[in-house]
Structure formats: C-alpha cells, structure tokens
C-alpha cells in the first residue's frame, strides 16, 4: 500500500478511508471545486449536501477517479487515487461501491445479471452461489420478482434500488451514494435510509452520501458537509447544521426561496 505523503497525516486509528486534499476541478472557464480538503473517518456516514449544480456529483466521481482532478489528490485507504496505475486502481475500486445518480444500469442485462455482474467478474463463486448472492442483495433493497426484467421494464425507484444492490454486491468497505433516495416515495426513502444505517452497523462500511433530502441527512449522517460555490461552507454534526446561524445554510436547510442563495 502506498504511504501518505505531503501534509497528510494518518489519524490516531490509522489511515483514513477517504482523505481529500486541495481538490480543484474546472470545466472550461467554470471552476466547480475550489481546493476542497476534508477527511472521512472510518465507519462514518458522511453526508454531502448543497444546491443543484454545486459540484456534489463531480466530487464523488473524483473519489473513484471517474474524473481526474486538475490539482489535488484523493487518498483512498492511504492510496493516492489520482496517481495509481490502472492495476492498482482496479484493485482499490473492488473495495468500493458506487450508487450513481442516474442508476447507470446495464440496459442489455436483466436486473439479476446487473447485480451478479461484479460477482462474476471478481469472485470464484459458482453460478449457483452467484445467483443466491445476487438474490440476497436484491432482497436487502426490497426487490423481489423483478430479477428477470430489464432496466427499461422497471420504475425509476426500482432502478435506484437495483443500483444499490449492485453497489453492495462485493461487500465493499467504502460506499458512495449519489442521491440514493431521490425519486423514491417516502416509505421507500426511509427503507433506503435504514439500509444505509444497516450497511454501516452490520458491515462497518464507510460511506459518503449525497442527498437533497434533509430528513434523510439528519437520520443517517454522522457528519455533514455543505458545498457552496465550490467551497466547504459547513462541516460538522447534523445538530450543529440545524443550529447554524449562517443565512446561506439556514435558507438551504429550510428550503426557503428568499435569502442569500437566490432562486432561478
Ligand atoms: N463532464 C462534465 N463536463 C462539463 N461540465 C460538467 C461535467 N460534469 C459536471 N459539470 C458541471 O459541473 C457543475 C457541477 O455538476 P454536478 O453534477 O457535480 O452538480 P450536483 O451538485 O451534483 O447537482 P445536482 O444536485 O443537480 O445533481 C455543473 O455546472 C455541471 O454542469
Ligand atoms: Mg448530482
């Protein structure tokens, strides 16, 4: 494993699961991330909130190196992900699961095959075991009787849950969720919150969860980061978040249309 370098120092309990250091990203003239630095602690559920277009998905994609930083580094379990060779990157990604905002399922595969895909690629389990594993993961997200359907034949909420089942298929140590509850009804949203909490308690997963859903954030977060105009506006406990007197934060948390953030 690569050793941490520069100003990065491992915490008392060892190497952080995720450490973001001075992360910069622009698209053309638009600078989306302006030197972000923060650490996600072992076993915590770290929630990222912020308005639409503030760079939340872009940030998460950097953690998996689905995007390359202009400057800065993301250390995943001490490994500088921007600098890894393909092989090392591949090995590290096996320990990570990602739930994409747009589900990003394989359209030509059934629901079951979508979930089984990583198991077939990365394990030596028998076909029978793979099917059992995949069914178990689908059951965990409350999906039954849809395994033979294709993504085009199920609802948006169901796709979301297949995406979660796929992300947890290899029992990852790190889970990245991009708006896991968006588009789900309140009952399903609560079920996904419960699932995120269960993954944390049963599997000791470290998670980053992006959400717009303040109720969900308050329920699942150990800490919350509020991203605003490419910078960290707040990083702290959910309690401190709701008690903050920052007008930008308070407008966002309360969902008000009047205030410093402005509307369309
Ligand atoms: N591949 C890309 N090429 C160019 N611009 C991009 C790309 N990806 C994202 N952007 C821009 O970066 C900004 C941040 O996008 P991002 O998807 O991270 O927003 P977000 O905070 O996730 O918003 P939402 O809550 O709506 O999902 C947006 O202005 C977006 O247009
Ligand atoms: Mg997004």
Counted beta strands: 10
List the ligand species: adenosine-5'-triphosphate, magnesium ion
In what range is the share of β-strand residues?
A: 15-25%
Which architecture of the largest domain per CATH?
Answer: 3-Layer(aba) Sandwich
Largest beta sheet, briefly?
Answer: 6 strands, mixed
Q: Level of helix content? A: 25-40%
Mean pLDDT: 89
Class of secondary structure makeup: alpha/beta
What is the quaternary state of this protein?
single chain
Q: Strands of the largest sheet, in order across it?
A: 6-7-8-3-9-10
Q: Supply the CATH class of the largest domain.
A: Alpha Beta
> Could you name the ranges where pLDDT drops below 50 across 5 or more consecutive residues?
1-13
Question: Helical stretch count?
Answer: 9
CATH topology of the largest domain: Rossmann fold
Question: Key terms for this structure?
Answer:
264 residues; alpha/beta; Rossmann fold; 2 domains; six-stranded mixed sheet; four-stranded antiparallel sheet; 9 helices; disordered N terminus; binds adenosine-5'-triphosphate; binds magnesium ion
Short description:
The chain has helices spanning 56-63, 86-93, 111-122, 127-140, 156-167, 186-203, 214-220, 238-243, 247-254, and strands spanning 18-27, 30-40, 45-49, 71-76, 79-80, 96-99, 174-178, 206-210, 223-228, 231-236. The chain is an alpha/beta fold. The chain folds into two domains: 18-95 and 174-254, Rossmann fold; 109-171, no CATH class.
